[in-house]
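One chain given next:
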Amino acid sequence: MMKRKIVLPVVISAVLPASAYSATEGMDRADNGFMLICAALVYFMTLPGIALFYGGLVRRENVLSVMTQVIVSFALVLLLWIFYGYSMAFADGNSVIGGLSHAFLSGITPVSNSGSISQLTHVIFQGSFAAITVALITGALAERIKFTAFLLFTVIWFSLAYVPMAHMVWGGGWLAEDGALDFAGGTVVHINAAVAGLVGAYILGPRRLPGKAATKPHSLPMVFTGTAILYIGWFGFNAGSAGKPDGIAALAFLNTVIAVAAGVLAWVIAEWCMRGKPSLLGACSGCISGLVGITPAAGTVGVPGAVVIGLISGIAGYWGGYSPEASPESR
């Protein structure tokens, strides 16, 4: 009997000799390993950090909806990031948007470097910022938007808001040329997401809640767990933005710790004075306020500056969410 030889076609984008994959010229392995760990921490912030944090804040019947929005937007953004997002954010282009020379990661191989790290590591790390930025917006749109509309919004906003802003600040575009200082995403991530959430909430209108009183978060333990995960993951966010495990990374790490401590105490004390008692939700909110406040300056201010930023962030956050009618656990 004649034996048939079966040939399985293998489709690959590029073929490199085996020796090429072991080349490390121009890449520092310590820097590369550090950045991969930091990227993993940022991904951990989104799943499960953001999902648990927002899931605990909404009504019980909407928990699964919010968590689904987080994980699906996370997956969608990462694919868009590979298809064209990374290229349009970091490839050569004009002052507002990059080009498509790296679409589908064209021209990027295991031996391509970005500074002292692999360019693939740069793709991974920056992709984690893109994914969490869209996930942050889900909190403002929760209980206001249908799932299909949210996915459409994700594609449009990522393409027309996040990618151009990343290019203008970090990709050598307009704001970078003007000397903008955004160490770890204050403009690209937090202001960008906050404006989107504010505008989205304004356009969609108030949540349709039962009765007139504010609805309490359905699970404060979930909120606390999500906050703790965000806090730990944020060290990858801030320290990782130094690009290497040096003194700037250590400063960013320490400033993050100090700003959070100041933010928690500022929020809790303000709540204590205004409402007569502190709350777990207030402490968690103060933690997030301190993290957000220190992010753009984590590697550029001293420790006293981190204390001031944390205090201001905690007080400002409490003032922004204060409502005389609401109980401490219902904001």
